[in-house]
Amino acid sequence: MFHIDPDIRKAKTMPSEFYTDERFFELSKEKIFARTWQFAGRTEDLSVVTPIDVVGEPLLLTKADSGLHCMSNVCTHRGKILVEEPCEANLIRCGYHGRRFSLDGKFLSMPEFEGVESFPSVADDLASVPVDHTGGFSFVSLDPVDMLAEFVSDEAIMPMGKGKLKLSSTNEYRVNAHWALYCENYLEGFHIPFVHKSLNEIVDFVTYSTELFRYASVQTGYEADGKLAARYLFIFPNTMFNFYPWGVSVNVVRPVSSSESVVEYLTYVSDESLVDEGAGADLHGVELEDEAIVESVQRGIRSRYYSHGRYSPTREQGTHHFHRLIAEFFGQ
User: pTM for this structure?
Assistant: First the structure.
């Protein structure tokens, strides 16, 4: 369906139709988001019962004696959503007709069902969904194309500083742009000197580097004196771990439509004394600058005079890698 030449010197970027055609947006939910691992949160911060959503699919994360589980958040009786908010509980009970499930999703009981034939059956249990964790963070996948370890490793999620990470804040930004445009902007430091004046004064553009992996990439920024300023880990297709001396900022891009996304920010701090210093000192300001750029691109790609672009071989390896993965998943 799409082809991105493996040779970045010859390759053309994704065609504008990928971003503007609602058909491709809907296909990306099944071909990309359902087949990859989606960020669910820091494992120790999760409630005993935590509802989450993966591209419109309501799910439940639960902590049981048998470990962490993920399952459908839809009652097997009449389809009601079971849990609306995170809570502490020892079982799951439907608020519609009282059907009950254990924390691992097994059917327990149902009032007024005496005499029903071939009941209960496996179909009355909550459907199980793959869940895994790495680096203290949990991920779920509806139909994973590969193991989580192939997407990211414990070593990759390694904070720069020392100390125990604590969830400091959560924020959401609504961006009027396609989810992939936001990710593409994140995947290259090429724009830093042109868009982020304050960040450019900290990060040495000359030594900025990108390293590619099967389903991930890591960008590393240094200060002028050679000191590590930040490390940016991208996990395909929409999860970003930003490592600073003070801790970790996790950004998750949630697709809403072909022209709208929600970016969830979770800030985990290990050293509060360093929060106002370095590359991670003004995340809000940098975010607003990035939003302005990708929203401008969203308007521009609709032009009749634009269909695709080319890549900088030295600065846009991450974006080229991202596009090749999109093309690969669409071809599966």
Answer: 0.95
